[in-house]
Amino acid sequence: MQPIIKLKDVWKIYDLGKVKVEAVRGITLDVHKKDFIAIMGPSGSGKSTLMNLIGCLDVPTRGKILLKGKDITKLSESSLANIRGRVIGFIFQSYNLLASLTAIENVEIPMIFQGVPRHERKRRAEKLLEQVGLSHRKYHFPKELSGGEQQRIAIARALANNPEVLIADEPTGNLDTKSGREVMKVLKKLNEDRGMTILLVTHDPSIARFASKVELISDGKIFKTIKNMDMLTAEYIQDLLGGEKNEEKAL
Fold this sequence. Notes:
This protein is of the alpha/beta class and about 250 residues long. It has eight helices and ten strands. The protein has helices at about 45-55, 75-85, 105-115, 120-130, 145-160, 175-195, 205-210, 235-250, and strands at about 5-15, 20-30, 35-40, 60-65, 70, 90, 165-170, 195-200, 215-220, 220-225. The strands form two sheets. A six-stranded mixed β-sheet has the order 6-7-8-3-9-10, sandwiched between helices. A four-stranded antiparallel β-sheet has the order 2-1-4-5, covered by helices on one side. It is globular and about 50 Å long.
Protein backbone atom coordinates (compact mmCIF):
# COMPACT_ATOMS: atom_id res chain seq x y z
CA MET A 1 0.00 0.00 0.00
CA GLN A 2 1.32 3.43 -0.96
CA PRO A 3 2.04 5.65 2.08
CA ILE A 4 -0.35 8.56 2.54
CA ILE A 5 2.72 10.60 3.55
CA LYS A 6 6.29 9.87 2.48
CA LEU A 7 9.39 11.83 3.51
CA LYS A 8 12.57 11.28 1.49
CA ASP A 9 15.82 12.59 2.99
CA VAL A 10 14.11 15.74 4.32
CA TRP A 11 16.21 18.59 5.69
CA LYS A 12 15.11 21.88 7.23
CA ILE A 13 17.90 24.42 7.70
CA TYR A 14 17.26 27.87 9.14
CA ASP A 15 19.71 30.54 7.95
CA LEU A 16 20.24 32.94 10.86
CA GLY A 17 22.97 34.94 9.21
CA LYS A 18 26.27 33.79 10.69
CA VAL A 19 24.67 30.60 11.98
CA LYS A 20 22.77 27.86 10.15
CA VAL A 21 20.51 25.71 12.31
CA GLU A 22 19.83 22.19 11.03
CA ALA A 23 16.45 21.57 12.68
CA VAL A 24 15.67 18.44 10.63
CA ARG A 25 18.53 16.39 9.21
CA GLY A 26 17.83 13.84 6.49
CA ILE A 27 14.64 12.25 7.82
CA THR A 28 13.03 9.47 5.80
CA LEU A 29 9.63 8.29 7.03
CA ASP A 30 6.55 6.51 5.65
CA VAL A 31 3.11 7.15 7.16
CA HIS A 32 0.34 4.78 6.04
CA LYS A 33 -3.40 5.16 6.29
CA LYS A 34 -4.69 4.23 9.78
CA ASP A 35 -1.24 4.68 11.38
CA PHE A 36 -1.10 6.19 14.87
CA ILE A 37 2.46 7.44 15.31
CA ALA A 38 3.89 9.32 18.28
CA ILE A 39 6.89 11.59 17.74
CA MET A 40 9.05 11.93 20.85
CA GLY A 41 12.32 13.66 21.62
CA PRO A 42 13.94 16.23 23.91
CA SER A 43 13.40 19.97 23.54
CA GLY A 44 15.06 21.28 20.39
CA SER A 45 15.21 17.82 18.80
CA GLY A 46 13.23 18.94 15.74
CA LYS A 47 9.93 17.17 16.41
CA SER A 48 7.71 20.26 16.06
CA THR A 49 9.60 21.35 12.93
CA LEU A 50 9.01 17.88 11.51
CA MET A 51 5.28 18.14 12.21
CA ASN A 52 5.12 21.57 10.57
CA LEU A 53 6.71 20.08 7.46
CA ILE A 54 4.33 17.12 7.39
CA GLY A 55 1.39 19.45 7.98
CA CYS A 56 2.31 21.71 5.03
CA LEU A 57 2.89 24.64 7.37
CA ASP A 58 6.49 24.80 6.12
CA VAL A 59 8.53 23.42 3.23
CA PRO A 60 11.86 21.57 3.47
CA THR A 61 15.20 23.08 2.51
CA ARG A 62 15.87 19.92 0.55
CA GLY A 63 14.40 16.47 0.15
CA LYS A 64 10.87 15.50 -0.80
CA ILE A 65 7.55 15.23 1.03
CA LEU A 66 4.89 13.29 -0.86
CA LEU A 67 1.28 13.63 0.28
CA LYS A 68 -0.90 11.04 -1.44
CA GLY A 69 1.81 10.74 -4.06
CA LYS A 70 2.04 14.48 -4.76
CA ASP A 71 5.28 16.36 -4.01
CA ILE A 72 4.18 19.23 -1.77
CA THR A 73 7.57 20.93 -2.09
CA LYS A 74 6.55 21.96 -5.62
CA LEU A 75 3.15 23.42 -4.69
CA SER A 76 2.22 27.09 -4.37
CA GLU A 77 1.21 28.59 -1.01
CA SER A 78 -2.45 28.69 -2.11
CA SER A 79 -2.29 24.98 -2.99
CA LEU A 80 -0.69 24.20 0.37
CA ALA A 81 -3.42 26.19 2.14
CA ASN A 82 -6.04 24.17 0.27
CA ILE A 83 -4.41 20.92 1.43
CA ARG A 84 -4.31 22.17 5.02
CA GLY A 85 -8.02 22.96 4.82
CA ARG A 86 -9.16 19.67 3.31
CA VAL A 87 -6.66 16.89 3.97
CA ILE A 88 -5.05 17.70 7.32
CA GLY A 89 -6.63 18.56 10.67
CA PHE A 90 -4.61 20.25 13.44
CA ILE A 91 -4.84 20.07 17.23
CA PHE A 92 -2.59 22.34 19.28
CA GLN A 93 -1.56 22.46 22.92
CA SER A 94 -3.28 25.81 23.53
CA TYR A 95 -6.73 24.87 22.04
CA ASN A 96 -6.94 28.15 20.03
CA LEU A 97 -10.70 28.46 20.47
CA LEU A 98 -12.30 31.86 19.82
CA ALA A 99 -13.56 33.16 23.17
CA SER A 100 -16.47 35.08 21.63
CA LEU A 101 -17.95 31.98 19.95
CA THR A 102 -19.83 29.03 21.43
CA ALA A 103 -18.52 25.49 21.17
CA ILE A 104 -20.63 24.68 18.11
CA GLU A 105 -19.65 27.95 16.40
CA ASN A 106 -15.95 27.17 16.97
CA VAL A 107 -16.42 23.78 15.32
CA GLU A 108 -18.13 25.39 12.32
CA ILE A 109 -15.25 27.79 11.54
CA PRO A 110 -13.16 25.51 9.24
CA MET A 111 -16.29 24.68 7.24
CA ILE A 112 -16.96 28.36 6.58
CA PHE A 113 -13.60 28.64 4.80
CA GLN A 114 -14.50 25.63 2.65
CA GLY A 115 -17.85 27.14 1.63
CA VAL A 116 -20.04 24.57 3.42
CA PRO A 117 -23.69 25.79 3.60
CA ARG A 118 -24.89 26.97 7.00
CA HIS A 119 -27.42 24.18 7.61
CA GLU A 120 -24.79 21.54 6.74
CA ARG A 121 -22.22 23.22 8.99
CA LYS A 122 -24.58 23.04 11.95
CA ARG A 123 -25.58 19.43 11.26
CA ARG A 124 -21.96 18.31 10.93
CA ALA A 125 -20.83 20.30 14.00
CA GLU A 126 -23.57 18.79 16.15
CA LYS A 127 -22.57 15.29 15.06
CA LEU A 128 -18.90 15.94 15.82
CA LEU A 129 -19.70 17.33 19.27
CA GLU A 130 -21.72 14.19 19.93
CA GLN A 131 -18.72 12.06 18.93
CA VAL A 132 -16.45 13.81 21.46
CA GLY A 133 -19.14 13.60 24.16
CA LEU A 134 -20.00 17.29 24.37
CA SER A 135 -23.45 17.66 22.81
CA HIS A 136 -24.70 19.06 26.10
CA ARG A 137 -22.08 21.84 26.02
CA LYS A 138 -22.56 23.05 22.44
CA TYR A 139 -23.88 26.49 23.38
CA HIS A 140 -21.27 27.14 26.07
CA PHE A 141 -18.40 29.56 25.56
CA PRO A 142 -14.77 28.43 26.05
CA LYS A 143 -14.48 30.20 29.43
CA GLU A 144 -17.35 28.04 30.67
CA LEU A 145 -15.55 24.81 29.75
CA SER A 146 -12.75 22.88 31.44
CA GLY A 147 -9.38 22.47 29.72
CA GLY A 148 -10.21 18.90 28.74
CA GLU A 149 -13.56 19.97 27.30
CA GLN A 150 -11.92 22.77 25.33
CA GLN A 151 -9.43 20.34 23.84
CA ARG A 152 -12.23 17.97 22.83
CA ILE A 153 -13.93 20.92 21.12
CA ALA A 154 -10.62 21.54 19.33
CA ILE A 155 -10.60 17.89 18.19
CA ALA A 156 -14.14 18.26 16.83
CA ARG A 157 -13.06 21.42 14.99
CA ALA A 158 -10.03 19.60 13.52
CA LEU A 159 -12.41 16.96 12.11
CA ALA A 160 -14.86 19.49 10.64
CA ASN A 161 -13.76 19.05 7.01
CA ASN A 162 -13.31 15.28 7.31
CA PRO A 163 -9.50 15.28 6.99
CA GLU A 164 -7.50 12.17 6.19
CA VAL A 165 -4.65 13.00 8.59
CA LEU A 166 -4.82 14.44 12.10
CA ILE A 167 -1.75 16.19 13.51
CA ALA A 168 -1.72 16.74 17.27
CA ASP A 169 1.14 18.82 18.70
CA GLU A 170 1.33 18.25 22.50
CA PRO A 171 -2.50 18.02 22.75
CA THR A 172 -2.37 17.14 26.46
CA GLY A 173 0.40 19.57 27.43
CA ASN A 174 -1.94 21.98 29.27
CA LEU A 175 -4.12 19.29 30.86
CA ASP A 176 -4.08 17.36 34.11
CA THR A 177 -3.53 13.60 33.95
CA LYS A 178 -7.22 12.63 33.97
CA SER A 179 -8.23 15.17 31.32
CA GLY A 180 -5.23 14.20 29.19
CA ARG A 181 -6.24 10.56 29.22
CA GLU A 182 -9.82 11.46 28.24
CA VAL A 183 -8.52 13.41 25.25
CA MET A 184 -6.27 10.51 24.24
CA LYS A 185 -9.17 8.06 24.48
CA VAL A 186 -11.03 10.22 21.95
CA LEU A 187 -8.02 10.16 19.58
CA LYS A 188 -7.58 6.40 20.03
CA LYS A 189 -11.24 5.81 19.21
CA LEU A 190 -10.94 7.95 16.07
CA ASN A 191 -7.97 5.84 14.98
CA GLU A 192 -9.58 2.48 15.73
CA ASP A 193 -13.20 3.15 14.70
CA ARG A 194 -12.78 5.62 11.84
CA GLY A 195 -9.34 4.61 10.61
CA MET A 196 -8.04 8.14 11.16
CA THR A 197 -4.32 8.55 10.50
CA ILE A 198 -2.83 10.35 13.50
CA LEU A 199 0.59 11.90 14.11
CA LEU A 200 1.14 12.95 17.70
CA VAL A 201 3.95 15.00 19.24
CA THR A 202 4.41 14.40 22.96
CA HIS A 203 7.12 14.34 25.61
CA ASP A 204 5.06 12.04 27.88
CA PRO A 205 5.59 8.25 27.53
CA SER A 206 2.18 7.55 29.13
CA ILE A 207 0.53 9.57 26.34
CA ALA A 208 2.72 8.05 23.61
CA ARG A 209 1.54 4.58 24.67
CA PHE A 210 -1.83 5.30 23.07
CA ALA A 211 -0.04 5.22 19.69
CA SER A 212 0.90 2.12 17.70
CA LYS A 213 4.57 3.06 17.45
CA VAL A 214 6.97 5.81 18.46
CA GLU A 215 9.56 7.58 16.33
CA LEU A 216 12.23 8.90 18.69
CA ILE A 217 14.03 12.01 17.43
CA SER A 218 17.25 13.60 18.58
CA ASP A 219 19.29 16.36 16.91
CA GLY A 220 16.92 16.46 13.94
CA LYS A 221 17.20 12.74 13.12
CA ILE A 222 15.06 9.68 13.77
CA PHE A 223 17.38 7.27 15.55
CA LYS A 224 14.95 4.75 17.02
CA THR A 225 11.54 3.29 16.15
CA ILE A 226 9.75 1.76 19.13
CA LYS A 227 6.89 -0.68 18.54
CA ASN A 228 6.72 -2.38 21.94
CA MET A 229 4.65 0.08 23.95
CA ASP A 230 5.18 -1.90 27.15
CA MET A 231 8.85 -0.82 27.09
CA LEU A 232 7.94 2.85 26.80
CA THR A 233 8.94 4.55 30.05
CA ALA A 234 10.70 7.82 30.81
CA GLU A 235 13.72 5.83 32.02
CA TYR A 236 13.86 3.79 28.80
CA ILE A 237 13.69 6.93 26.65
CA GLN A 238 16.40 8.59 28.73
CA ASP A 239 18.62 5.51 28.45
CA LEU A 240 18.23 5.55 24.65
CA LEU A 241 19.03 9.25 24.43
CA GLY A 242 21.99 8.85 26.75
CA GLY A 243 23.27 5.91 24.72
CA GLU A 244 23.08 7.92 21.52
CA LYS A 245 25.08 10.79 23.06
CA ASN A 246 27.73 8.32 24.26
CA GLU A 247 28.02 6.88 20.74
CA GLU A 248 28.54 10.37 19.31
CA LYS A 249 31.33 11.04 21.85
CA ALA A 250 33.03 7.77 20.95
CA LEU A 251 33.02 8.74 17.27
